[in-house]
Amino acid sequence: MLALLLLLVSFSSAFALDKACPFKPTDMIFVLDGSGSEGEDNFKKQLNFVSNFTNQFEIGQNKTRVSLVTFATTVNNEFYLNRYYDNTTLLRAIGQAHYPNGETNTHLALDHVRLQSLLPSNGAERNVSKIVFVLTDGRSLEEEATKSAAMQLKKDPRVTVVAIGIGNAVDDNELRAIASDANHTIRVATFDALNSIKVELTQKTCDTCNDLSDVCFILDSSGSEGSGNFHQQLEFVKMVVNEFSIEGSSKTRICVVTFSTTSLGEIHLNSFNDKTALLQNIMKIPYRDGETMTNLGINHGFSELTNPPRQGANKVMILLTDGRSTEPDLTRQSASAVQRAGVDVFAIGIGPNVDSQELRFIATAPDHVFEVDRFHDLASIHQEVVNKICAKALITTTTTTTSTTTTRPTTTTTKPTTTTTKPTTTTTKPTTTTTKTTTKLTTTLPPTTTRAACGLKPADIVFVLDSSDSEGAENFKKQVDFVYNFAAQFSIGVNSVQFSVVTYSTDVQNIFYFNDHLTRQEVLQAIRNNITYLGQGTNTSGALQQVRENNLQTKHGARPNAQNFVIVITDGRSDDTNATRSEAHELQKIAQVLSVGIGPRVDSSELAAIASNHKVLTVDTFELLQTFKQQLTDLACQSGR
Ligand SMILES: *[C@@H]1O[C@H](CO)[C@@H](O)[C@H](O)[C@H]1NC(C)=O
Ligand SMILES: *[C@@H]1O[C@H](CO)[C@@H](O)[C@H](O)[C@H]1NC(C)=O
Ligand SMILES: *[C@@H]1O[C@H](CO)[C@@H](O)[C@H](O)[C@H]1NC(C)=O
Ligand SMILES: *[C@@H]1O[C@H](CO)[C@@H](O)[C@H](O)[C@H]1NC(C)=O
Ligand SMILES: *[C@@H]1O[C@H](CO)[C@@H](O)[C@H](O)[C@H]1NC(C)=O
Ligand SMILES: *[C@@H]1O[C@H](CO)[C@@H](O)[C@H](O)[C@H]1NC(C)=O
Ligand SMILES: *[C@@H]1O[C@H](CO)[C@@H](O)[C@H](O)[C@H]1NC(C)=O
Ligand SMILES: *[C@@H]1O[C@H](CO)[C@@H](O)[C@H](O)[C@H]1NC(C)=O
């Protein structure tokens, strides 16, 4: 509950000034399960969630539009996208939706969305992304029909389906079949926990791409363009920039260079930390006239990207031109140098006077060349360019920060203390130290806005990481990234959540105890810097024993009044499964144990034995580990009840 309050407090204040993704108009269609299994109270909680979520966006005819559909035995269309264009009437209508009660005919609702809600005449005429949120608490009555209805719906390229499963009765396979992909499948433990996914969901809604990229636009400002056409280039830049998350230290940075007879850096990578200001200044860039010294533009962009380079960032150059360069040889030389340095270069030619061969030479790959007939057509390719940048970013950056939000990080540091007066029951534990730690944070840490304290009962969480040779160093690093991102969500300290990490192969290695590092910053640094890959065997039993006998003992900082959690992550089976099972049994007496299995080699029966109440999570690949973050958080937050 406290977690929820913290989220709400930080959200309501952050968005008072600035709504979520203000530049990205979206059509959002909510499809709510109103079947008999949930009851009216829980149905109301879904409505609350929809209100809270949509209230983050600016509602309007040319902004975000919202539609609401409920279903049980039949489908009720509460309202289409074109019914409410202001937040007051919209929120009122959401609150008044009635509980249908009945069976779970999910397929009928999905068909309704495809055949009715998405019709132009029902408000879906804009060429903007359409996000369908399907909330359900159980299995659908007709599984095959549901899968096929979902498949039909997803054929529409404008549509993204997010499937949100609530509670234990949800069928993971079905959820996956409904959602656009695994990234858009979310599970929460209870109806009350719905609001905890707001941040994650907002991010999915606002950003198609959330990776570390430095993107430099090189714009032709030569005499052949004319200022009207130059302005169309700026519109294109604006459209692409809109698709990225600009705020925060680990997001996309943008620079803009123009060239004609000379080159000019109009916007530098670190000029703006704020999308509004960035876009306003992009639109003010003047047209200059002159020759087409493409080579100077490329060189200039390269120096913007590399002086100094940002560690781990995907470097991208997007060159726009309507003609051939004045110095073709120099242009080719410059382009080669940039490509050799690992920059991903796109070349976009506009109109009949471009030199296709030159474009092909400038771009890093054939699919990075675009040619459009008219300046006006630039809009039609922007999404494809964005998708390609994102695809590259996902491959090249190993540590993606999943730490979310479009809020300004500065506003919330003092907020947590205000909620401490709210506790309803029991231990009047002061959570006041959060303010102390947040003020010490350096800018390299993830934003602090989304930190959950996970209930009134403080949590002591031990991560147990498999470091055996079956993993490989690369996969091990992904585990460590996951632990980092997981821990970064929390307020860490003796009065909130504490972390400890153990790794194991043949030997067991304690990385740090609860009381080795007292601040969030130190804990995150220790996760990042002090965990090394071991190789060799899989001594799971030894690791569990170490946790029980050492990490969870008070002399190492474990708190008697805390809820203990042990999260075991492995990709294989232990060397001695009998010993592992019996150690797990002992450990479960003093802690909630969660087990996460990765890949095809896991022994599900052993994993189930390790976990308390069979809380096993499995994923196919190490990459997918990130998709569990929210689920683990929810489990950790719910278990103490
Ligand atoms: C947000 O949710 C809370 C409880 O879940 C509710 O009391 C509140 O009215 C909601 N806010 C909005 C704007 O709907
Ligand atoms: C929305 O855009 C349309 C077309 O550009 C315009 O006619 C209409 O006035 C706009 N509506 C509002 C409320 O701004
Ligand atoms: C609607 O939005 C306006 C402007 O963002 C805000 O002042 C107002 O409080 C909102 N109304 C409701 C009911 O949330
Ligand atoms: C998750 O999203 C990324 C980029 O949006 C995509 O490349 C990846 O394939 C997705 N993962 C799954 C399992 O769909
Ligand atoms: C809608 O946008 C997409 C991608 O941005 C584009 O491919 C398509 O041509 C556009 N359609 C219309 C009718 O403008
Ligand atoms: C990393 O481990 C070394 C050796 O155990 C220790 O001296 C150092 O303080 C640790 N650093 C961090 C950031 O925990
Ligand atoms: C496993 O770890 C325990 C605890 O560190 C240790 O006592 C034991 O010898 C290890 N087992 C093997 C086979 O190395
Ligand atoms: C493990 O336990 C099972 C059943 O308790 C037993 O049959 C088996 O012999 C044991 N294996 C080892 C290696 O001790």
Explain briefly what this protein structure is.
Helix content is 37%, strand content 18%.
Report on this model:
It holds the Pfam family VWA. Keywords: Signal. Residues 400-444 are annotated as: Disordered. Residues 1-16 form the signal peptide. This is VWFA domain-containing protein. By secondary structure, this protein is α/β, with parallel strands linked by helices. Helix content is 37%, strand content 18%. The protein is built from 20 helices and 18 strands. It has helices at 2-17, 39-54, 87-95, 106-117, 143-154, 172-178, 198-206, 226-242, 275-283, 294-306, 328-340, 356-362, 378-396, 433-439, 472-487, 520-530, 540-551, 577-588, 604-610, 629-639; strands at residues 27-33, 65-71, 75-79, 130-136, 159-166, 185-188, 213-220, 253-259, 263-267, 314-321, 344-350, 369-372, 459-466, 498-504, 508-512, 563-570, 592-598, 616-619. The chain has a six-stranded mixed sheet with strand order 3-2-1-4-5-6, with helices on both faces. The protein has a six-stranded mixed sheet with strand order 9-8-7-10-11-12, with helices on both faces. A six-stranded mixed sheet has the order 15-14-13-16-17-18, sandwiched between helices. It is globular. It starts with a helix and ends with a helix. It binds 2-acetamido-2-deoxy-beta-D-glucopyranose (8 copies). Residues 525-526, 529-530 line the site of one 2-acetamido-2-deoxy-beta-D-glucopyranose (NAG).
Number of strands: 18
Report the portion of residues in β strands: 15-25%
Q: What is the average of the pLDDT values? A: 79
* Largest pleated sheet: 6 strands, mixed
How far the N terminus sits from the C terminus, by CA atoms, comes to: 11 Å
Low-confidence stretches: 1-19, 392-456, 637-641
**Separate helix tally:** 20
C-alpha Rg (nearest Å): 26 Å
Instruction: Indicate the overall shape.
Output: globular
Bound molecules: 2-acetamido-2-deoxy-beta-D-glucopyranose
Protein name: VWFA domain-containing protein
InterPro entries: ECM_Assembly_Org, VWF_A, vWFA_dom_sf
Signal peptide: 1-16
Keywords: Signal
